[in-house]
Every structure is written in C-alpha cells, then in structure tokens.
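Hi U.,

Before I forget, here's the chain from the pilot set. I'm dumping it here mostly so it's searchable later in email.
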Amino acid sequence: MCTVCIQAKLKQKIIKAKTKRTTMTFELVHLDVCGPFSTPTSAGHRYCILFIDDYICYIFVWVLPDKKSKTCTLAYHTDIKEKAR
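Structure:
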C-alpha cells in the first residue's frame, strides 16, 4: 500500500467550537485563490478568485491576471461592494 492511500484513510478528530452566526451581508467573507491554470483565458488571465459570503451563502467568482493582494482587493472592493448597494 502506498503512503498516500494510508494517509487518506486516517481519521481526523473533529473539534466543534461554538461560533456566532453572522447577522448581515459581508460581515464574514471567505476567499480562495486558485491557479495558475495551464491554459489562460483569451485575456491572458490564469487565476480564479472565489468570495463566499457567510450570511447569504452566495459565491462570487472572478478570473484575474495575477494573485497579487492588490489585484484581489481591487476585485473585492469594485465588484462585490457595488452589488451590495
């Protein structure tokens, strides 16, 4: 058996912690940056960013040219905040 198969079958101990539920949109937003993709878009973008709003459970997805913090922050502030209005 390979080590990856053994590690994949390991059991993890789940530690449940009480958390406070969000009460309004954009109070808690999770994000994940994916990439670089081997084939870029027609505009040359190779990354994808996901913003997940914890309150409304809505996912916003954008393709980006890079994963610099300035690019990700700009995508969040220009598009998501406009949709909240």
